[in-house]
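Repro:
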Amino acid sequence: MPTETRDPGHRAHRSTDRSAQPSTPARRGPGRPRNAAHDEAIVKAVRDLLRASGYGALTIDGVAARAGVGRPTVYRRWPSKAALVIGALSELAPEQPSPDTGSLREDLVAIRRRQMELLSSPEGRRVLPGLAADVAEDAELHRCFYDQYVAPWRAAVEEAIGRAVARGEISDNADARLVAEVLTGPMFFRVLFAGEPVTDGALESAVDLVVAGLQRLPRAG
């Protein structure tokens, strides 16, 4: 009977294209087709158990029992608890197209509000601290987490910065990647370390500080 270990040969990757199937961490070879009903039952079981008892208490056995499937059915889809949770939560992560409001401030507020939806959800608050430890120890899980959660947010901010530069709203000296990190850091700090919800007021205040700094940057050359 399998144990909760990671398959070292497994490759977990997710495109930022949300039309792809985010909860499938690996390509499947020939064999019996996936049962969509099982996928839905497993994902629902993960979310229910996370809300009830958090990440630390979650087990593959518990998920399988609640979903009404066997352990091998879960392991064929996700090789570890962390991979299972990342896959199950991926559908909670809001789509992250970069809105074009004509204002850098409003673009960044809209992007961060989508991010806040996940971070402030019951699942997000109960999962991220424990999940972060597992992700930090496993390079493959780290890449999967980055592809699903970090990369889309960073890309959306970079696009918003690029549009603001093109409009002449801010200097072309702006470091878009740094802006994305500066805006995301306080949100993760509140969830992971302070255990506090991310309020809309705090989100807007952070955006205002960043935009004010960007508007004071000198022009290149």
